[in-house]
Amino acid sequence: MRHRSVGQLMTRPVVSVRPATGFKEIVRLLTEHDITAVPVLDAEDRPVGIVSEADLLLGECAREDPSGLLLAPRLTPEQAARSRAATAGELMSRPALCCRPEWTVVEAARRMQHAHLKRLPVVDEAGRLIGIVSRGDLLRVFLRQDRAIREEIRHEVLDRAVGLSPDALGVTVEDGRVTLTGTVDRRSLADVLERLCRSVDGVVDVTVLLDHREDDTVRPTAGR
Question: Which end of the chain is less enclosed by CB atoms within 10 A, N or C?
Fold first, then answer.
């Protein structure tokens, strides 16, 4: 099956800054380009960190409440130091977790989820920045048309993956929700088909309404 890659979904060119870029210039870039974060690049265009709106707001969070009603925030020593920062190199969150353009949506999504990130810089083999991919970019796979999803399931899943005729089973797709109908030789094949269909880009859910001629999931009873 042909999964869309990070390289196909990423945004380019990327708005970036250098470690010496000042606080106000970063704010100006975020506002001008309607973005929420920028990668920080070294002299060889390799990402060394990310400055996000959250990083910029640390300074405001550290200030005392003028009304005196709010308690002072509890900041870690590292957060306290960054709350007084004035340049990208001092403000940035590090290290910059990156991904490669050949990664699948699943690989990128898992890295984001594991690290609690909203975006990943995309780098080439030398580690140089070539793009950036966000959660919103990854979600674009769900904009695939139902007809395209149906054809991929018929030809890539049924025909190529499991060796069935594309017309062997009924395949309907509505708003990304797949329904399989018909009869398969073995019950275990139904589970395989469901798993393969769920891996197709753009699939939201899979309903399997398949009969089977043989239940090969039941172990024979051992003789006494």
Answer: C
Q: Are 193 and 180 in contact (CB under 8 A)?
A: yes
Choose one of 94, 115, 141: the last residue of a domain.
141
Domain limit, last residue, from 124, 141, 158: 141
Task: Indicate the number of domains in the chain.
Answer: 2
Q: Which residue from 101, 122, 125 is spatially nearest to 8, judged by alpha carbons?
A: 101
Q: What integer is the mean pLDDT of 112-123?
A: 96
| DSSP assignments along 94-125, one per residue | SS---B-TT-BHHHHHHHHHHHT-SEEEEE-T
Q: What is the pTM of this model?
A: 0.77
Q: Tokens representing 114?
A: 């594991």
CATH number of the structural domain spanning residue 202: 3.30.300.130
What are the tokens at 49?
Answer: 């960190």
Q: How far is CA 57 from CA 63, 91, 94, 120, 144, in A?
A: 10, 10, 17, 21, 37
Residue 15 and residue 93 in one domain: yes
Q: How confident is the model over 26-72, as pLDDT tens digits?
A: 999 999 999 999 999 999 999 999 999 989 988 666 555 565 555 56
pLDDT band at 76 (very low <50, low <70, confident <90, very high): confident
Do residues 41 and 92 make contact, with C-beta atoms less than 8 angstroms apart?
A: no
